[in-house]
Amino acid sequence: MKAFIASVVASAVVLTLPVAQAADNDLAALKKAARSEGQVNSVGMLDSWANWKDTWNDISSKYGLKHSDTDMSSAQELAKFDAEKENASADIGDVGAAFGPVAVAKGVAQPYKPSHWDQIPDWAKDKEGNWALAYTGTIAFLIDKQQVKDIPHSWADLKKGKYVVTIGDVGVAAQAANGVLAANYALGGDEKNLKPALAFFADLAKQGRLGVTDPVIANIEKGEVQMAVVWDFNGLNYRDQIDKNRYEVVIPSDGSVTSGYTTIINKYAKHPNAAKLAREYIFSDQGQINLAKGYARPIRAEHLTLPADVQARLLPQSEYKNARPIHDQAAWDKSSKMLPRLWQENVVINMQQ
What we know:
Layout: H1 8-16, H2 19-37, E1 39-43, H3 52-63, E2 66-70, H4 74-84, E3 92-96, H5 99-106, E4 133-144, H6 155-160, E5 165-166, H7 174-186, H8 195-206, E6 210-211, H9 217-221, E7 227-231, H10 232-242, E8 247-250, E9 256-265, H11 272-282, H12 285-293, E10 297-298, H13 308-311, E11 323-325, H14 329-346
Parallel strand pairs: 1-2, 1-3, 5-6, 5-7, 9-11
Antiparallel strand pairs: 3-9, 4-7, 4-8, 4-9, 4-10
């Protein structure tokens, strides 16, 4: 598009183009610029997470871009962008939803709205285009049916059971902390008031039914976990890796929390067009399908027809009817910082030795 607006005549032509054709011209220019950059360097987008492998292979084969990734946490990614500035070694990263606004506040993001922008829910994107969730996770139950005969479908069911509920280390793991928030929603709490969930887990602790082992695949496979509170994409992945018939994954029917991950294009990127093209591809039909292959729920799921084998990996949309995104992110940021202390004081103190 920039090439066209170099002259008055070309500008007049562009103004008469249909919107879709103008967008196509923009995309063609972006692809050309990305190809000339020749490479894209990511952080936190390793092959094994959310099936980034297929997306990077597609981008490499379609556009001739070389790719490298360095694995790191969301906080580390933004710190790297900020520290390196004009000496940037990374062009794009994948961070948890809470870090999108942080990237904007730090001044390390640059905007790009992909072609399917209108199909991304308002709650899942920054209106300026600095961030947009490409996929989501929702807190789910992973149940070992060999050990748990009465399958729980709600937090209320958990309270009536006899099995151990494993949530992990709430003071360290985002998955565990979001598990507490999910229970809190179901029990009538919100981002500011965590008392309902703290009382719920304290009760489980008093019964000797609370497990704080990390619910990772190694521990689950050994049979050390009867029932775990995990992200749905982790639960589905573990289920299929160990034994699809042995494990069941359900979204609690009385309430859960949905969060996700967004790409951040480094403000100082050496290959900004390649990074923008990567975001464009991630939101394309094939990019979204690639994420679904990795058990992540594509943000454009309602607008896609997933291949049958890919759809079979995910839970039906009806499971998510009472799952909702975080409404007050600022309040949750504050509460989550206090949660490790509150967990110790209200829950851990009640655990049977």
